[in-house]
Amino acid sequence: MGDTRTEEDFAAHIHAIVAAYPAKDEIVIVADQLNTHKSETLVELISEICAIKDPLGEKGKSGILKDMGSRAAFLQNESHRVRFVYTPKHCSWLNQIEIWFGILTRRLLKHGNFKSTEELKQRILAFIAFFNRALAKPFRWTYIGKPLVA
To answer: Which residues does the UniProt record annotate as the domain Tc1-like transposase DDE (predicted)?
Structure first.
């Protein structure tokens, strides 16, 4: 990924992932509910990759492109070679990398002072090496399925 998080950036990232696999392979991508993960650009890319000739409609007006719900339904279609599975909203704890990002934030980023993106990158890489060497262990989920009560 790059310095920005636009829908074009994400689509380019997905394009690079897909290009790394043989055309016969099915690719399932797990993503969160971020709007760029359900974008017009992404739908157009997946339509092209999967050789879908049907009209996509018009964003905000009709068809697959009408809204995020219709775009998400298209992107989740199990008949496509490339499809998405979305984590539920407000459930970042289901995504293991989010747990690790929390550790990174608390231990390095929250109180850090970085003079450049290069310094930030080097400090993150050093933290990763330290974490893997000294702290890494399997995450143990403790939630046992009891419903939350207001």
So the answer is: 3-121
What size, in residues, is the chain? 150
pLDDT tens, residue by residue, 13-72: 999 999 999 999 999 999 999 999 999 999 999 999 999 999 999 999 999 999 999 999
| Closest of 25, 68, 70 to residue 50, by C-alpha | 25
pTM, to two decimals = 0.73
What tokens does 41 get?
């650009």
How far apart (Å, rounded) are the C-alpha atoms in residues 44 and 25?
20
Q: What is the residue extent of each domain of the chain?
A: 7-90, 95-135
Q: What is the pLDDT of residues 104-135, one digit of tens each?
A: 999 999 999 999 999 999 999 999 999 999 99
